[in-house]
Specification:
Length: 72
Amino acid sequence: MFNALKEAQEIIVFESLGKYISPAQKISVEEKVSIYDALYIAQAQKYGRLLTSDKKQSDIAQKLEIEVEFIE
């Protein structure tokens, strides 16, 4: 399990959610989405891209001009 997590660090960004709480709260309230979903969108604002299989999350990110890769 540890080795798999270590390898995942090459493609997945692991960060503290603290720096995304404030923008995520704003997104959550304005877009009527859970704070959990909004945290991903807030992080995607920083990096400019979002990979998701959540249609609502995808729509909100696109509205915020974030590049989205939607997986069905």
